[in-house]
Structure formats: structure tokens, C-alpha cells
Write a structure and sequence with these properties.
The protein starts with a strand and ends with a helix. It has a single domain, classed as P-loop containing nucleotide triphosphate hydrolases (Rossmann fold, 3-Layer(aba) Sandwich). The longest helix has 18 residues. 43% of the residues lie in helices and 14% in strands. The protein has a 7-stranded mixed beta sheet, sandwiched between helices. The protein contains 12 helices and 7 strands. The protein is α/β, with parallel strands linked by helices. It is globular.
């Protein structure tokens, strides 16, 4: 099963959620592939304990732009059972370079076809935009996870993303389904956090995960150690929440 994790708004916990859900499922003994399709490469640095792929390492840019195989590009991470296809800054120009390619929206789907047969779970961390790379991920995916920050403007961006998903379903991938909307950075001390969660649940009944990810300092610390928070501090509130989300992902299919 291929999951795209997407939201065109930055700073919503998209990469953190991708890394930790993938890591939770891998910790449970399932083989998982993490695909970093964001040129910022934060998912790459977040699972390699401070290491960087070598200068000759293949990346997702090579896969999308030059036809390199996912098998050749994948590398192990600090989490057992979790492999990574790293990103690089070269992905920044991919959306432009792909415009004139034949079958441009389906390149990632073709590239990940073999991996989907080998890994029960494939997670694609999308860039914070609705560009051609994100569209490629939505076409390749069976399911979509949408992290949404518990803040005032969340619904505005979510509505635009849902419109894009509808267009992709209609034209390119009718099988795409929303696995869940994941509310992140919840601060129970503020009224607005609870109001936003209630409003999202009202607008998208049945689509919102029951588990809410709390604000937690351990989440902000863990990337500097190149580890998911579920390994950096497996007993913190955010780690507990991500384990619960991973269970929901597995149950929803």
C-alpha cells in the first residue's frame, strides 16, 4: 500500500508525521519504505542519525528525472525494517523539468510499482506545495494522509487540497482514498486548538483520525539527532500518539 502524506501548507508536521508513522510500523516488524520527495530533504536527515548520503548516492531526483530504480536508490536507516529513498536539492527543479515529459503525472507510480510489491507500506513525504511532484505522489498513492495543524487557517488550506484530490481522482487516479486527516500540534491550553479540531471533524466526518498529535518539545529536538521521536524518546506524549496513529493507519488499510 502506498501512502502519500501531503499538505501544501508548510509547518504542519507533515515530515515529522511521515517519519514517525513509518517508523512505528517498521518497529512493529513490517518492512516499510520511506520516500523523500521533498527537496528540503528533512525526512532524509531525520532518519539517518546525522549521516548524509554520499555524493554518488542516488536520490529521488535520479528516480524521477533519470529513470534510476528505487531498488538502487534505497538505503537503510536508523530504524530496523525502514528503508529510505533519499531526497536532494535537485528535486527543486523537478516540477519544471517534468512538464514536457510524456506521461509526466505517472512517473512516480511507475517507479514505485516494484517497491509496492516488496514493501507492505510505502510512505511518500510530499513537498509543501501542489506542484507536479505532489501530483505524481497522489497518482502513485492508494491512500492519502493529510496532517493539519490545529490553528486558525487550517480549513482554508485543507479545502484547496481536497479540491486537488478530487481533480486527481477524476482524471488520473480514481482509486485514491483519504486514509485520514491527522490533527497535529494540539495545545490543550488554548481554546482555538479544540475549536479547529471540532470544525475539521464537522466538515470531514469520518475522515479525521481519532488520535491527535500534541505539541511536544521532544518532537522539535529529535530531528537534530536524526531520529524519529519514537526512538529519541519513546515514552513521551507525542511518541505515544504516533503509535496510536500507526495503529489507526493499519486498521483503516
Amino acid at each position: 500500500m502506498i501512502y502519500a502524506v501531503a499538505n501544501q501548507k508548510g509547518g504542519v508536521g507533515k515530515t515529522t508525521s511521515t517519519i514517525n508513522i513509518a517508523a512505528c510500523l517498521a518497529e512493529a516488524g513490517t518492512r516499510v519504505l520511506l520516500v523523500d520527495a521533498d527537496p528540503q530533504a528533512n525526512a532524509t536527515s531525520g532518519v539517518l542519525a546525522g549521516e548524509r548520503p554520499g555524493p554518488d548516492a542516488l536520490t529521488m531526483a535520479d528516480v524521477l528525472l533519470d529513470g534510476a530504480s528505487v531498488t538502487a536508490a534505497r538505503i537503510p536507516t536508523v530504524v530496523p525494517n525502514l528503508d529510505l529513498v533519499p531526497a536532494s536539492a535537485d528535486l527543486a527543479g523537478a516540477a519544471v523539468e517534468l512538464v514536457d515529459r510524456e506521461g509526466r503525472e505517472g512517473l512516480m507510480k511507475a517507479a514505485l510499482a516494484g517497491a509496492a510489491a516488496e514493501y507492505p507500506y510505502v510512505f511518500v513525504d510530499c513537498p509543501p506545495s501542489l506542484d507536479l511532484v505532489t501530483v505524481n505522489a497522489l497518482v502513485a498513492a492508494d491512500r492519502l494522509i493529510v496532517p493539519v495543524q490545529c490553528e486558525y487557517y487550517a480549513l482554508e488550506g485543507l479545502s484547496r487540497l481536497m479540491e486537488t484530490i478530487g481533480e486527481v481522482r477524476a482524471r488520473l487516479n480514481p482509486a485514491l482514498r483519504v486514509s485520514g486527516i491527522l490533527m497535529t500540534m494540539h495545545d490543550p491550553r488554548t481554546r482555538i486548538s479544540g475549536e479547529v479540531i471540532a470544525e475539521v471533524r464537522r466538515h470531514f466526518p469520518g475522515d479525521v483520525f481519532q488520535t491527535v498529535i500534541p505539541r511536544n518539545v521532544r518532537v522539535t529536538e529529535s530531528p537534530s539527532f536524526g531520529e524519529p521521536v519514537i526512538r529519541y524518546d519513546p515514552h513521551c506524549a507525542a511518541a505515544d500518539a504516533y503509535f496510536e496513529v500507526a495503529k489507526e493507519v493499519a486498521q483503516r488499510g
